[in-house]
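In response to a reviewer's request, we include the raw inputs and outputs for one of the modeled complexes. The two entities were modeled together in a single run.
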Amino acid sequence: MLRRPLSRAARKEERTAWVFLLPWFVGMAGVTLGPMIASLYFSMTDYNLLSSPKWVGFENYGKMLDDPRLRQSLSVTFIYVVLSVPLLLAVALALAMVLNRGIKGLAFYRSVYYLPSLLGASVAVGILWRQVFGTDGLVNKFLGLFGVDGPGWISNPDTALYSLVILHVWTFGSSMVIFLAGLRQIPEQYYEAAALDGAGRLHQFRHVTLPLLTPIIFFNLVLQVISSFQSFTQAFVVSGGTGGPSDSTLFYSLYLYDEGFGRLHMGYASAMAWLLVVIVGFLTAINFYFSKRWVFYGDGK
Amino acid sequence: MNHSSRLSRRSRLRAVGLTCSVFALALTAGCAGDSSGSNGGKTVIRFNWWGSDSRHEMTKQMIAVFEKEHPNIDVQPEYSNWDDYWKKLSTSAAASDMPDVLQITDPFMYSYIDNGQLMDLKKVKDVLHTDKLPANSMAMTTVKGGLYGVPAGDSAFGIAADPAVFKKAGVPMPDDTKWSWDDYVKVSKAVSKTKGLVGTVMPLYPNDLGPWLRQHGEDYWTEDGSQIGFTEGTMAGYWEWVVKLRDSGGTTSADAAVEALSSGAGVEQSLVAQHKAAMTDVSVTQLGALEGASGREAKLLLFPGEKGASQVGAYTKPGIFFGASARTEHPKEAAELLDFLVNSPEAAKIQKFDRGVPNNPDVLKAITPELSPAEKRIADYLGRVNALKPTALHIPNAKAGPAVPEIFQRLNEDVLFNRLSPKAAAKKFISEIKSQL
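The model returned the following structure tokens for the whole complex.
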């Protein structure tokens, strides 16, 4: 260990730090790590929650290859992530730029736009969404003014998933606040210099804002991909817990929940959880790999 | 220097102390959470059920009466709605923390019986008297010689029809002793011709599937429950009929029906309760709730197709049972509560038919003078079904049975939204059930 020996005082301080960190470590071990290890074990068993698990090795993982509902849930989740994440980031960035103009009452608007992020995954909003997109909901009332007879957006398998995408995009607030902080970091001189060189607003955005914001975009992208993959509440509430109609909103985590607690296949559900870990880990790794090509860190790294 | 290091030690000690007290708090909270046991000399037992708000209120009143009769027992109520009852129960079973007494039903209860989670009630027959309960009402909970549940009351599926809507549409009420499944479609279509009315609510639960299969001489399961008891052709026929009903315009749109279902709307919010539909399939014990919401009288009709069928389709059976946890530390007290729930006229006077028509004839007799007109009509309907001398519904397979309603509902939506043909759906229905066996 090439570590400089610490002074007595520093060592004491370090020990104090450990003591303060202890609750977090205990929580991490007990609430996160423990269940994860347990689920790894359960994933190799036949476990129905009602009697003790029986060891089956990799059988559950093999079963996943031949499960049409698993494929359906993966495709639903991928479509959801691929559509909602870029849309959400674009909306968040656009609004952050508008708010960054230094308009009056910024704090108020920031709070108003942030609110949906806090509420979006809640049960209440899921229920609200049913009212808005229902057969007799707001959207159809509005379409009715133009003589259009809209479908039940959330109860028709062709449109149900897209109404959930919109719900997710609506929760752009947390990404927006991070963008707003990023925009504040960009020195004003860059814009002045660009303006002197005759760059218009579009050029300024394209050649100053965007490159300097790439680390923030990257950060938001990684966070959003991970959280979108784990979406659960919206689909659970909107579809009444079934992932219906016709499995059109069967998110991966919803299917996992139903297999584990509904059909009592906890071994299989645990294996599914590990597949999710692998998928999300893989996508994050890909994100980091490609980030070298487009993410610009100011310090030249 | 010396002084300051003492101080810092003190603050460190304080930090350690704080951390420990947080854990201590968490631990005591954990202990306090365990409510099963003794409380001031009383034996505490937990009782879990699902239901509507009115059932929660009535059951709490019943518990109060029970506690008065048994001053040594303290019953802790735990209740929820139907939606997540079984998911919560499986979690508590996995944690070995199941309530002592629970409300159960088929097909879900068979997973619990099969895995030894429920107590064999024959062990407590000194306290829980079953001699007044008809043997056929306990057939469903008798598995391998053990008795795992006592019936809360008989029920049946049927069609609730609103004569006022038929009158408004100028369509005569169908004669349910003669009508066919095609007549059902025709009548629905005729009612729907009047603006603002539909003939029937789109069936999304398999309430009418049992009668359909039985009329074709089949059943969900073979008699011993080991195999699927119906053929692909009969199942495809059912879904062809569903498509015919949908295309006739005699029913709500698939969109609207799915929406009502996923929002958890009960019979109180159904289109019949809103005077917009003439008919809906129901569990007949809900008639009172339906009439309470609609404010007018509804009639109970038999499902179509009984005339000329190879077997009587309609059937009555207990819709709800009560059982006890195999791990209960208080089997005697649990049995006393079970005995009260099924054999006490006092309990029945409070809940009437909410959990079905009492199976104990003495109890039924005791409450008969107090029945409302709706309850009398429920009793009449069950009497009509029993007069057809129906055979008993076969007992579901313990492993695959609980998955059937969910598989049906999903494939039924596939058919309604034209994603699967009736034939393809029937084929998939059978193969999906088989994969669960």
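As requested, we also summarize the result in words. The radius of gyration of chain B is 26 Å. Residues 2-33 of chain B form the longest helix (32 residues).
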